[in-house]
Amino acid sequence: MIAQMSFASLLLTFASVVPAGEIYISPSIRQVYARVEVSEDGRIDKVRFRNRMSEIVETALRERVLAWTFDPVMKDGVGVRATAILHITVDIERADIGLAGLTITDVIHAPEPVHTAAPEFTPRQADAGLRGLVVIRCHINYRGRCKDLGAVPSDTPPVLVSSALKAMAEWRFEPEFVGGAPVDTWLHVPFCFGETAAADSYHCPAPPKDISYSGPDSPLQFHWEGPGAL
């Protein structure tokens, strides 16, 4: 099936913005970045993980990645090589029992963030009850910079939308490559203001289901077998 970019696998792993610019991420979720080389016929023939992990996990994950494919990218009727960055979301239920309990929940390909900035969210705003989800749509150019920033319409307070836009403008990415040249792409990044680890915490609403996260102009179309145990 064609992998779509879901909220669980976006760059912040549906991270939450709390006062003082801190970011809370569920301790059971891990984002693994893998730089892959794609052959002329769409096969992944090289994998380099950006994260440190145990040998047994890396070996199993590498085997899975090498089985995934892309649609061949054609230029002037000839297939060309490509370099893509996979964002692999792994749910670690019990890290002390080897591979058992490790589940791949989602995989997408997208530029890798090399510099990020957290939106401003002050204690006063939190005490005032400001909450909400902001989804920023970013056009990443071949230099890895966010251009044509915009927010998906929502009921979130405008001050939080402005904060997310300002932070997103500072992000930098490593672009993907097709035929040796960097390519532009679109990306959606969610910021959930006010959610914490507390059981009675505010929880952001579900994202709109009609958003295409991978971007309509991406020359790379990725295929994988879907969620499952590692």
Structure characterization notes:
Strand 3 and strand 4 form a beta hairpin. The N terminus is likely disordered. Helix content is 12%, strand content 38%. The protein is mostly beta strands and 230 residues long. The protein is globular, with a radius of gyration of 18 Å. The strands form five sheets. Strands 3, 4, 8, 9, 14, 15 and 18 form a seven-stranded antiparallel beta sheet that branches. A five-stranded mixed beta sheet has the order 2-1-16-11-12, with helices on one face. It is built from three helices and 18 strands.
Characterize the biggest β-sheet: 7 strands, antiparallel
- Count of strand segments: 18
Give the class from helix and strand content and strand pairing. mainly beta
Q: DSSP helix count?
A: 3
- Series of secondary-structure elements, N-terminal to C-terminal: EEEEHEEEEEEHEEHEEEEEE
**Helix fraction bin:** 10-25%
Uncertain spans: 1-15, 18-27, 212-216
What integer is the average pLDDT? Answer: 76
Shape: globular
Percent of residues in beta strands: 35-45%
Radius of gyration: 18 Å
End-to-end Cα distance, whole Å, is 18 Å
Protein topology:
Elements (H helix, E strand, L loop, with lengths): L15 E3 L3 E3 L4 E10 L5 E6 L5 H11 L3 E2 L2 E3 L2 E3 L1 E11 L9 E8 L2 E4 L7 H5 L4 E9 L5 E6 L6 H11 L3 E3 L2 E2 L2 E2 L2 E9 L28 E2 L4 E2 L1
